[in-house]
Amino acid sequence: MKRKQSLFESLKLYIEKGIYPLHMPGHKRRMNTPGLPTLYDFTEVEGTDDLHHAEGILRDSMERTAGLFGADRSWYLVNGSTSGNLIGISAICPLNGELIVARNCHRSVFHALELRNIRAHFVYPDFEKDFGIFGGVSPEAVEELFRKYPESRGVVITSPTYEGVVSDIAGIASVCHRHSAVLFVDEAHGAHFGLVGSAGFPESAVKCGADLSVQSAHKTLIGLTQTAFLHMKSSLIDTDKIGRFIDIYETSSPSYPMMISLDACTEMVMNEGEKVFGNWAETLRLFDEKIGSLRHFRVLCHGGDAPEDHGFFDFDKSKLLVNCRNTHLNGERFMEIMRDRFGFELEMQLSDNALAMTGPGDDRQQILRFAEALLTLDREEEYGDTFCDRSEDVPRMPEAHEHELKKECAVRRDPGEIYGSGTDYMSLMSTELCQAVTIQCAVESESEEVDISKASDRISSEYVYCYPPGVPVVVPGETLDENCVEGLLKLFKNGYKLHFTKSSPYQKVISCIKVDKK
After folding, report:
1. Is 338 left (phi over 0), alpha (psi -120 to 50) or beta?
2. CA 483/CA 496 separation, integer angstroms
3. How confident is the model at residue 300, as a pLDDT?
4. 452 and 489 in contact (C-beta within 8 Å)?
């Protein structure tokens, strides 16, 4: 069968026709701004198709993408996975309906619940105490909630998590389908899943039975920032509803450079996937081999550490989550050292952890240099942080002095007092609070600011979260209890940078539904 042209090739041919644009955009593809791809910045005219009514080159492009990912339909999104979550949840659940929702979902999921006035029944993932992170959602926990809330129209979970933890999608999908319900997976960090089997990454959600999934093409593939895929493989979802909510939530002027980059993801995997993903997997194997001698720093599910050691169903090895709990550093200081001393900018930090993300575009030598930087800091931790202040290999210290320096490290280090427990934030999120009213009701009710120390038994009317990862510790409509209040105050004490959607984070107050004092 004759290969269809890529989106880039089709638009290049259009340019070669020499048709002058008496239409927007105003730069007319002539006024080149340094760093911007204005030559391919089109609008919807004859020959360039229309993303919202794709009948030509964009339809062909999305069909190729669906075929590659094993979906019945795939849609291009230029408003990120955030728009995919809004679209998906709006399409699978009616106004005022009910959904089972993982409590560790991204804030955009909660925004969708708010907009549709959906009553959420929260399922709590397992909690991995060693690294202080969420594990996966279990099929058994989902089944239990279906028994309690049989009117639930579907389940929404995040897999993989920001840190790379993968849930049992096939098992959860089986539970959902037994209850004639839909499974929607926020797979924003898993666009590379299920594409090249030999690379060793987990299988994709739709290939495991999920009805709908959203993936960020820019996070782990080669799409431009803000690009995403929405995949559907289901007979339970009305595609007309998907189209309706795409029209509502996605811009009517989608960026052609962004769409070219989405198609480029498909082209890259189809034409070079085995080579690119093979190199990626080999780089990660060499990284694991190199860090095997770490004694103080740990990297989750790397260097001999396995998913089953933590009770995970599966794990995405493209994520390098470094844990500093056994050192005198916390995640924030570790990130600073990696930036200022070694020249690495990491993705995020939270308490004792710092996350480095790898991707298909990585330079192998840089990833191995990161491993060497870890080993350098690890040796310095062994002998005292004044032993070496260079990034090159560190010679071993004479054994006669080793014991005294270890004692010095022990005196310096008290992470529980200085930085707080690495589980503070995640454990607070895993504490179940009573959902007194829907999110929409709480947000739109008359509210007042309450001193956090006096907020027990009050109903929150705002979100509280750290970003990243953007997972709320408090959701509007939840009744705060003593444990939650103490937890929030502890986060303040330990230096967490909390975001409040209504209140000022500097005043230690929280917006709550106003109480009639009559």
Report:
1. alpha
2. 17
3. 99
4. yes
Cα–Cα distance list, 516 to 239, 443, 446 (Å): 45, 17, 10
CA distance 164 to 518: 51
- Name residues whose C-beta falls within 8 Å of residue 217's C-beta, 6 or more positions apart in sequence: 191, 223, 227, 228, 229, 261, 262, 265
Express the helix, strand and coil content of the chain in percent, nearest 5 each: 40, 15, 45
pLDDT of residue 2: 56
Query: Coil, helix or strand for 245?
Result: helix
Domains of the chain: 7-270 (3.40.640.10), 273-418 (3.90.1150.150), 431-513 (3.90.100.10)
Has residue 390 got a pLDDT over 70? no
Q: What are phi and psi of 185, to 5 degrees?
A: -110, 125
Locus of tokens 């070669």: 16
Q: Report the range of poorest mean pLDDT among 135-139, 291-295, 297-301, 399-403.
A: 399-403
Q: Cβ(94)–Cβ(39) under 8 Å?
A: no
Can you give the pTM of this predicted structure? Answer: 0.90
Confidence of residue 409 (pLDDT cuts 50, 70, 90): very low
Q: How many CB atoms lie within 10 A of CB 77?
A: 29
Residues for the chain: how many in total?
A: 518
The number of angstroms, rounded, from the C-alpha of 502 to the middle of its chain's C-alpha atoms is 24
For residue 389, give the amino acid letter: D
Residue 202: Cβ-neighbour burial (10 angstroms; 0-12, 13-18, 19+): buried
Cα angle vertex 278, ends 272, 281, to 5°?
140
Report CA dihedral (296, 301, 304, 310) to the nearest 10 degrees: 90
Give whole-number Cα distances, 272 to 17, 267, 486, in Å.
30, 8, 53
Alpha-carbon distance values, 320 to 18, 243, 289, 294 (Å): 48, 37, 14, 14
pLDDT exceeds cutoff 80 at 271? yes
Strand partners, 231: 74, 213
